[in-house]
Amino acid sequence: MTDRASELTENLHKVETRIASACASAGRNRDEVTLIVVTKTYPASDVRLLSELGVRHVAENRDQDAAPKAAACADLSLTWHFVGQLQTNKVRSVVGYADVVQSVDRIKLVSALSAAAVRAEREVGTLIQVALDADSGARGERGGVAPDGIEELATAVAGAPGLRLDGLMTVAPLAGPYANREQAAFERLLELSSLLRADHPAANMVSAGMSADLEAAVAAGATHVRVGTAVLGVRPRLG
Ligand SMILES: *Cc1c(COP(=O)(O)O)cnc(C)c1O
User: Fold this and answer.
1) What are the CA-CA distances from residue 10 to residues 14, 16, 233, 237 (Å)?
2) CATH 3.20.20.10 correct for 3-232
3) Of 72, 73, 95, 194, whose CA is between 20 and 30 Å from 176?
4) Distance from C-alpha of 138 to C-alpha of 104, rounded to nearest angstrom
5) Longest CA pairwise span in the chain (Å)
6) What b/e readout covers 63-99, taking b as 16+ CB neighbours within 10 angstroms?
7) Would the CA dihedral through 30, 211, 88, 98 be positive or negative?
8) 161-186, pLDDT tens digit by residue?
9) d(C-alpha 13, C-alpha 231), whole Å
10) Positive or negative CA dihedral for 199, 58, 86, 19?
11) What is the pLDDT of residues 62-108, one digit of tens each?
């Protein structure tokens, strides 16, 4: 085994142990939580190693990096998640490889994704990204729609050809009422998810929690955690 392979093996094992013990503490089954490894800034060779180690879900946040990486790993049958802020001019490219776009936060993006998915003859899963620190109607600094904008977006996605409404995503806010209160933030996301599921029962994905706060997300009921640093190491640059 190469050094990198043993490093990734060890890190994955640690993350797996954290997820399993968070599930046990919360009285949840381990299979209720899916690990998505965020491979941004790391090379396709790492994605390949992760795949050999049993990882099935990977995430990227910049189309420029993700498109060639996904192409280089097309033989691995991984599920690719797009988790970054998305400009409409990148949508055609993203739809070419992303199975799930987790960062849907405005109507214009819904129409663009739908048109691209239809054109590519693909069905793209979508999560609505919620900004728990955004005011009514506004979007957060790091993307995401304010909670009172979820319903309108959900209706748009549900009616959009080529798109499938899968659920909600959030990043724990650094500012506002939920700053330093990850657990409360994620519990709020779960409440919003149950409101969403009243109208859209199949939209049951809840993507929350990263390297630093995955335990809080699992405790709150997240179905997907997005872990980068704890698996791959500290990123060489901001990604
Ligand atoms: C980078 C990133 C992650 C992973 O963050 P880590 O702290 O490295 O685990 C999760 N979600 C999103 C949206 C990201 O951009």
Assistant:
1) 6, 10, 11, 23
2) yes
3) 194
4) 14
5) 52
6) bebbbebbeebeebebebbbbbbbeeebbbebbbbbb
7) negative
8) 999 999 999 999 999 999 999 999 99
9) 9
10) positive
11) 999 999 999 999 999 999 999 999 999 999 999 999 999 999 999 99
pTM higher than 0.90 for the full model? yes
The tokens 């998505």 sit on which residue? 36
Q: Of the residues 61, 128, 213, which should be mutated to test ligand 1's pocket, given the most ligand atoms within 8 Å of the CB?
A: 61
User: Alpha carbon of 87 to those of 108, 143, 147: distances in Å?
Assistant: 10, 11, 21
How far, in Å, is the centroid of ligand 1 from the Cα of 227? 6
Q: What atom in ligand 1 is closest to the CA of residue 231?
A: 9
Strand partners of residue 200 = none
Question: Which residue is associated with the tokens 């013990």?
Answer: 21
CA distance 59 to 102: 9
